[in-house]
Amino acid sequence: MSLRHALIGLLRERPASGYDLMQIFEKSLHQVWPATKSQVYAELAKLAEAGLIAVTAEGPRGRREYAPTEAGLAELRHWLVEVTPEEHQRSETLLRVFLLGAVDRAQAKEFMLAVRERTLADLARLDALTASIDWDGHGDTDLARYGVIVMEWGRRMMEMTREWSEWGAARIPD
Amino acid sequence: MSLRHALIGLLRERPASGYDLMQIFEKSLHQVWPATKSQVYAELAKLAEAGLIAVTAEGPRGRREYAPTEAGLAELRHWLVEVTPEEHQRSETLLRVFLLGAVDRAQAKEFMLAVRERTLADLARLDALTASIDWDGHGDTDLARYGVIVMEWGRRMMEMTREWSEWGAARIPD
DNA sequence: GAGAACATGTAAAGCGTTACATGATTAA
DNA sequence: TTAATCATGTAACGCTTTACATGTTCTC
After folding, report:
1. In what helix (H) or strand (E) does residue B153 lie, and over which residues does it extend?
2. Residues from chain A contacting residue B52 (CB–CB below 8 Å)
3. What's the rounded Cα separation, in Å, for the pair A143 and A138?
4. pLDDT digit string, tens, across residues A13-55
5. pLDDT tens digits for B37-54?
6. N or C: which end of chain B has fewer CB within 10 A?
7. Which letter does DSSP use for residue A51 in this model?
8. Measured between CA atoms, how close is A127 to chain B, in angstroms?
9. Which residues of B touch A96 (CB under 8 A)?
10. How many domains does chain B have?
11. Locate the Transcription regulator PadR C-terminal domain: which residues (chains A, B) (predicted)?
């Protein structure tokens, strides 16, 4: 259950409404932990009921801003430092590669090269994003500091995938 | 819905029972597409009902071996070549890095170094696995050909993650 | 005879996606 | 005044995990 920790963590930076949090999920967090409105609003309600966050302000149109409570921050820190993350690498692309024996070699090679093309496009989009993000606008926030580290992972991942797809394509005989 | 395609693809290599398929999921496919008994048996039933696989043999203890039908193979090929895979990178580790501002820098650095340690351990396990797999036992099967490409992705991914975790740790000031 | 491995499932609960539903406020 | 944006949710469905449940066959 990581969504709740993501929410507490974001609220720690600054109080926000469900609507605000959705913007963040769509923009910066989408590649790392996608979430939908339904999920966010439901989880906020649960977190408030559990006393891990609390309403700090109300605005127009029923807007409610939340901030983490002390209990919420304690739970976040506990999860960050003491709970070992478990990665379930579920990759549709790798699954397909695994099953590529079902099509002929020309098509398999085409698949690997299509992976390469998509990765190059992703890489271009990431570079554009990196250039466009106004980290200074955030000042010296923690999100800026650690956000850069996360984005660097994405960049390295894509570089690696591009090289791998070329290697893989070359490995399939004509 | 990739599980059904995974199952058809595995059955294409050789007919198998749900029990056999679970062995495969636990051994070779776990890192790419984890699945549980409940899921596998349920999906086999659905696939059989949809006419994409069929029982080819029955054995002791109610054992039923399945093989894909022509319709199943067509569906698999269609999915492999014509449906663009969509990746939802959901990484608990990266989410934590993103939120690392909630703990002090020493702990954040410790976290990055713990990622490094875990990655090194994973890498050692992968190398051991690579050495232990008897690809020749499978002969020149497609799983051997493409399985190697998938494993190489894993290896490169781990190498990348190790380097990145060192880079990230160094980037956090004392 | 006992224990391991083989073999198949059901049930419940939680997580995630998509579609539906409603209304208020602001800016052009 | 009208369109965009702000703002919150509910409902239904499917996928995934965990726990429960049962019985057979083989090997030592």
Report:
1. helix B142-171
2. none
3. 8
4. 999 999 999 999 998 899 999 999 999 999 999 999 999 999 9
5. 999 999 999 999 999 999
6. C
7. T
8. 18
9. 79-80, 85
10. 2
11. 90-168
The number of helix segments (H) and strand segments (E) in chain A equals 7, 2
Q: Length of chain B, please? A: 174
CA A89/CA B83 separation, integer angstroms: 20
Rounded Cα–Cα distance for residues A103 and A49 (Å): 53
* Dihedral sign for Cα atoms in the order A45, A8, B31, B157: positive
B152 domain residue, yes or no: yes
Angstrom CA distances, B60 to B17, B44, B45, B65, stand at 12, 18, 19, 11
Supply the pTM of this predicted model. 0.94
Q: Are residues A98 and A144 in the same domain?
A: yes
Final residue before a domain boundary, out of A39, A63, A82: A82
Nearest by CB: B153 against A33, A94, A141? A94
- Indicate whether B17 and B75 sit together in one domain: yes
